[in-house]
C-alpha cells in the first residue's frame, strides 16, 4: 500500500508534506465554526453518519470533516472501525460540503519537535491520500429531510494533483 510521506511534526507541515498544515488548519476552522453555530439561531443542524473504507476494509481510526462549500457550519467526527456518526446538535446544516478524511499513524521514529527544538515528538504519516483531504474531491449534499448517510470507499492509490485553473 502506498502512503503519504512522513509528516515532520504534529502541528507543522514540515518540509516533506506541506499540505498537512492545511488539513489541521481546516480541522481547527471546523471546530471554530462549529462553536460559532451553537447559538441556536440559523438553519437546523442535521445528523449525518456513514462508513469509511480504505481499499475495501473499514478504516480503523481517523477523522472526517464536512467543510461547507458555502456557509460557516462545519462538522467533524471520529471514524472508528469504519463508522462515523455526527449527532444533530453537532451536525452540519443543510447544504453542500467538501469532505476531508484523515488517518494519521506513527511511523515509529522520533523527530525534532517543530515548535520546541530541544524536544522530540513521534513522526506520523497520513494513511489517506491527498485527494481525500488536502486536495479533497469528495462532496456530500446534506438534506433537511430524510437520512443523511454517506459511505466513502477510498483507495490508497494516489491520484495526480489537479492543475490550477486559469
- What is the total domain count? 1
Low-confidence stretches: 7-18, 27-37
End-to-end Cα distance, whole Å, is 34 Å
Major sheet attributes: 4 strands, mixed
In quaternary terms, these chains amount to single chain
Order of helix and strand elements from N to C terminus: HEEEEEEEEEE
Describe this structure in words.
The chain is mostly beta strands and 166 residues long. The chain has one domain (20-147). The chain is built from 1 helix and 10 strands; from the N terminus they run αββββββββββ. It has one helix at residues 20-36; strands at residues 48-54, 57-58, 61-68, 75-80, 83-86, 95-102, 104-112, 120-126, 138-142, 152-154. The strands form 3 sheets. Strands 1, 2, 5 and 10 form a 4-stranded mixed sheet that branches. Strands 4-3-6-9 form a 4-stranded antiparallel sheet, covered by helices on one side. A hairpin with a 7-residue loop joins strand 7 and strand 8 (120-126). The longest helix has 17 residues, at 20-36. The radius of gyration is 17 Å and the shape is globular. Residues 7-18 and 27-37 have low confidence and may be disordered.
Question: What key attributes describe this structure?
Answer:
166 residues, four-stranded mixed β-sheet, four-stranded antiparallel β-sheet, 1 helix, 10% helix, mainly beta, globular, single chain, 10 strands
